[in-house]
Please model this.
Amino acid sequence: MPLTELIIDGFKSFAEKTKIEFDTGITGIVGPNGSGKSNITEAIRWVMGESSAKSLRGSNMKDVIFAGSEFRKPANHAEVSLIFDNKKGELNFKDDQVIVTRRILRSGDNEYLINKKSVRQRDVRALFLDSGISQESLAIISQGRVDQVLNSRPEERRSLFEEAAGVLHFKKQKEEAKVQ
Ligand code: ATP
Ligand code: MG
Model:
């Protein structure tokens, strides 16, 4: 499923609205230590529904908002959008282009949007889980995660493969149906 663009505004070190375009094939992001490479992958996980501030190296979710620097005022909100080309219908959504946005204000108010319409966090998660990608899946492997996967228990590892294969969504639905 082609991810075509990432727009980061006020998230972590991205004080100004920054657009990153992805071509077909592999995209490499290079830069010196502390220049914001990990912040980019964190922005992607965040918009996909990450709910742990700790896994984004903060103590509160509001910590993702640009905190200001010597020359710049702190931002009053953070906003990240992922833009997908959905002409082949790989995302279970009717439109040819799917824009997933997450926004957080200093007040702590948090909002998710799909194609500019307000949705719930679970709608965003379901959209990605359906396609075999989620913010916890093997689609995004952060620093230290390789060791964690190799050292995990077989059941945990199985769950990762199930998610990658796109079957975890059906399993979750089945569990929900059992409870009802
Ligand atoms: P490395 O090569 O060492 O892994 P990196 O390119 O991955 O570095 P990041 O960890 O993405 O770098 O960026 C770290 C920078 O982001 C630090 O300078 C830190 O001060 C800055 N940063 C993190 N959160 C915020 C925030 N809320 N506001 C402003 N700057 C922030
Ligand atoms: Mg890094």
Notes: The chain has five helices and six strands. The CA atoms of residues 152 and 158 lie 10 Å apart. Residues 37-38 surround magnesium ion (ligand 2) (CB under 6 Å).
